[in-house]
Specification:
Helix content is 44%, strand content 16%. It is an alpha/beta fold. The protein has a domain of 174 residues: NAD(P)-binding Rossmann-like Domain (Rossmann fold), CATH 3.40.50. Helix 1 links the parallel strand 1 and strand 2. It is globular and about 65 Å long. The structure holds serine.
Length: 346
């Protein structure tokens, strides 16, 4: 029997590229991708088929669905939080209407197959909105249902899409003739800021973490857009991909939630800078806080309570900050920039 097909949107993004490698290495699925930009050759090799196009293009999505029997969707395409504040309506279109299109594809596909298509959706710490730094410090590790009052368009979009996914899974067309037809199976993870050795994110507000590291590795100076005390949770990309695949494989009966926090480590900007300086003694890092981006980071929790993910599907991060730096980030960024660094740097 042919392996099942998984559709990955936003495949050329930060999470997407790592996920494609992981799915290829696992060898359990045939992968079809959609992204605005064409995938580089290396990543195309991991896929059955790749489409360059917009998730707002319903014709394209229908084409993809007509050609493939999709059993799993990782819907990763999104405009991140800083980009979303620059163009809130576009963010809403891409993040909400785009997600609705994908949910529709998954729903139609579930009916066609007579079983639930699994829909994996990365949500974010951006769904939280702490009103002040004092409240943030008092709140500590937040649970899923606390402080769901985001201050960014991106956070609002993610929070609403979590609800949409839950609705499609449990109540879609509850009054209609299709009330008994198969529904999709939506599962979501609220990720902290992600740090990848392979890509630098664009348009996010947690970007100061990865930017600091990549700038030092390239021998470039970095002006951090939040102050040294700013603190949010972060995670190394391999753990993020691990979380997605683990939640994909979890038994439905064991899931008590639609949406799960996952945490790993939670350094302040100054602690990230200190660790980067330890690896790159010549790193030039200073602080030039952008008031709005700093306020967004201050509205996000300093850590998350991920006990439900641990309990329901066995979540446990493999990387704390030190191990992420030593075993994943530093070796890989060193290799990546080896030919670009001026001589004399470590
Ligand atoms: N990394 C995202 C951002 O900064 C948050 O999920 O927008």
């Amino acid at each position: 029997m042919a392996k099942p097909v998984v559709l990955v949107t936003g495949a050329n993004g930060e999470i997407g590229r790592s996920l494609l490698q992981r799915l290829y290495a696992d060898g359990r699925y045939r992968v079809v991708t959609v992204d605005l930009t064409p995938l580089p050759e290396k990543y195309r090799g991991y896929c059955l088929e790749t489409y360059a196009g917009n998730i707002m293009d319903r014709y394209l999505l229908d084409q993809v669905a007509a050609h493939h029997e999709i059993e799993v969707i990782f819907h990763l395409a999104a405009l991140l939080s800083t980009r979303g504040e620059r163009d809130p309506e576009l963010a809403h279109q891409v993040n909400v209407e785009g997600t609705l299109h994908l949910l529709r594809v998954a729903q139609n596909q579930s009916q066609r197959l007579g079983r639930a298509v699994r829909f994996l959706f990365p949500s974010s710490i951006a769904v939280y909105g702490l009103p002040s730094v004092a409240d943030k410090q008092r709140a500590g590790r937040v649970q899923e249902e606390a402080w769901n009052v985001p201050i960014t368009m991106y956070g609002c979009n993610k929070l609403y899409c979590e609800h949409l996914g839950r609705y499609f899974t449990t109540n879609y067309r509850q009054l209609g003739a299709l009330a008994t037809a198969a529904r999709l199976d939506f599962r979501s993870i609220r990720f902290p800021g992600l740090i990848s050795a392979e890509t630098v994110p664009t348009g996010g507000t947690s970007d100061f973490g990865p930017e600091m590291l990549h700038a030092a590795a390239k021998g470039e100076r970095y002006s951090c857009f939040v102050g040294p005390e700013a603190r949010i949770p972060f995670m190394a990309m391999p753990d993020a991909v691990q979380a997605l695949t683990q939640l994909l494989d979890a038994d439905r009966e064991r899931l008590t939630q639609t949406v799960y926090n996952v945490g790993a480590f939670s350094p302040s900007a100054a602690e990230i800078a200190a660790r980067v300086r330890k690896a790159y003694p010549n790193a030039q890092i200073d602080y030039a806080p952008d008031p709005v981006r700093a306020k967004i980071v201050d509205s996000w929790p300093e850590d998350v309570d991920d006990s439900r993910a641990r309990q329901d599907w066995g979540w446990a991060p493999a990387y704390d900050f030190e191990r992420a730096m030593e075993e994943y980030l530093l070796p890989n960024v060193r290799e990546r920039y080896a030919n670009q660094r001026p001589s004399g740097h470590p």
